[in-house]
Amino acid sequence: MRASDKAYATLREDIIEWRLAPGTVLAEVEQSERLGVSRTPVREALSRLSAEGLTTAAGGRGVVVTDISLEDIDEMFELRETLEGKAAALAAVRGERAVFEKLHADLLRAQELINDADPARHEYYALVGRLDEAIDAAISNSYLAQAMRSLRVHLVRVRRLAADDAPRLHAAAVEHAAIAEAIAAGNARLAEAATTMHLHRSLSHVKATHPHH
Amino acid sequence: MRASDKAYATLREDIIEWRLAPGTVLAEVEQSERLGVSRTPVREALSRLSAEGLTTAAGGRGVVVTDISLEDIDEMFELRETLEGKAAALAAVRGERAVFEKLHADLLRAQELINDADPARHEYYALVGRLDEAIDAAISNSYLAQAMRSLRVHLVRVRRLAADDAPRLHAAAVEHAAIAEAIAAGNARLAEAATTMHLHRSLSHVKATHPHH
DNA sequence: GACAAGGTCTATGTATACATAACTGCGGCT
DNA sequence: AGCCGCAGTTATGTATACATAGACCTTGTC
After folding, report:
1. What is the domain count for chain A?
2. CATH assignment at residue B45
């Protein structure tokens, strides 16, 4: 593994997991010492992070971890609804029925994955991730897929902030299942509507959890 | 101006203007000699270009200029319709009426800008650029604006490929005027429809001009 | 004659030394 | 007392030397 990849992965993880708070200044020398690599790979990592929008170059004095305001969350979900709504509609038209029928069935059984044995809900999120990947593959549009990937980085940060509780996850699983079902049925408008509903409820949940910020 | 900015701007311009053909291998030493800077800024420039999608890291053997296939153009316009349609609708709701009324009037007079005195149509494209900027500002959604900016880079490359002729530009000016008018009127659905129409005709024109590729 | 294995070579990946510009603190001026 | 300006310091920006890994060519064998 390249040192720059390591630096990038570590910094990215630290930012997403909120171990590096917004506003934190990431100095090159400081980070190179912390990560045990030289300034060059750190520099490249910070470059990539800034391109993604996780950090911003604060003119001259290092790069700082970007903040996420309530307005940012609204804006992110506005774009998300546009992109994922379109993606769901396209997947309904172009996707393979069998793939989404299986995902539908798995998502209906996802309630069992949400238990106290796995507080981080790794398996549940992995399943949701498979739905995302299936949609990405089904739309066969690399530009749209890329736009959604860019956005997902920021959404993971929001998710960490929102502290999904079990009731919300149970409801979300049902909503995801509805999306998969609509895609499997080849019903584009229904798939888009199901996506809109899901995102609306997700946003409401986030806002209810964090009224301030 | 920083050397890395210079390297980035030069390389980006060369790629967009098709002076660097798709498939061209951009070796670091070679480019650093050509641009008169050291490898470090060239490296950073290539990094940024790859993040934008203008180049791709060809595992081990340098970065190569990405190609644009006919499928790519279809995909780009599919995303573009989604993004710009939404943006136009939002601008109709959130934008300032006066700004778009002025743009509407200017665009109706744009026919005069398309003459033999300016073969590159700088003034015309500047006016269209002002419409884009006005919409960007009106939507007040930095994530959506960022997604559109990312896409526009690639679209400029396609435009250079399509060799816009005077008749198409005259028609496009009218279509742009219709978008501005709908936004000024605060009619979101009409603005979205006008955008869809414009993009459909643009794509048809590009495909008619370049049936192969 | 073709395929595979090894070596060489050339590219990128990394580290570090040096240049330069901006921020900060201090001092003098108004 | 507040502000402007200068210098010191410390950060980033650049260049270059060195490490390393992958690609291509050569050579040997089947």
Report:
1. 2
2. 1.10.10.10
As a whole number, mean pLDDT of residues B179-196 equals: 98
Q: Which residues contact A79 (CB under 8 A, 6 or more apart)?
A: A151, B141, B143, B144, B147
Nearest-Cα residue of chain A relative to residue B154 = A143
pLDDT digits (tens, 9 = 90+) for B76-86: 999 999 999 99
Instruction: Select from A65, A82, A113 the last residue of a domain.
Output: A65
**Residue A42 sits in the same domain as residue A136:** no
Which chain A residue shows the shortest CA-CA distance from B89?
A: A82
- The domain that holds A167 is classified in CATH as 1.20.120.530
Let me know whether B98 and B201 are in one domain: yes
Residue B114's pLDDT band (boundaries 50, 70, 90)?
confident
Identify all chain A residues contacting B72, using CB atoms and an 8 Å cutoff. 142-143
Cβ neighbourhood burial of B193 (10 Å; 0-12, 13-18, 19+): middle
Residue B18 confidence (pLDDT): 95
Quick one: A185 and A87 in the same domain?
Answer: yes
Give the residue from B97, B136, B130 showing the smallest Cα distance to B113.
B130
- Evaluate if the CB of A2 falls below 7 Å from strand C: yes
Closest CA to B132 of B80, B169, B167, B204: B80
Secondary structure (DSSP) of B88-144: HHHHHHHS-HHHHHHHHHHHHTGGGG-STT-TT-HHHHHHHHHHHHHHHHHHT-HHH
Same-domain check for residues B157 and B203: yes
Range of the domain at A140: 70-209
Q: Is the domain of B56 the same as that of B95? A: no
B44 at A interface, C-beta within 8 A: yes
Cα separation, B164 vs B14, whole angstroms = 20
On chain A, the residues whose CB falls within 8 A of the CB of B140 are: 75
Same domain, B47 and B78: no
Q: Are residues A8 and A61 in the same domain?
A: yes
From the C1' of C13, which residue's alpha carbon is nearest? A2
Contact A173, A111 (CB under 8 A): yes
Inter-chain CB proximity B76 and A143 less than 8 Å: yes
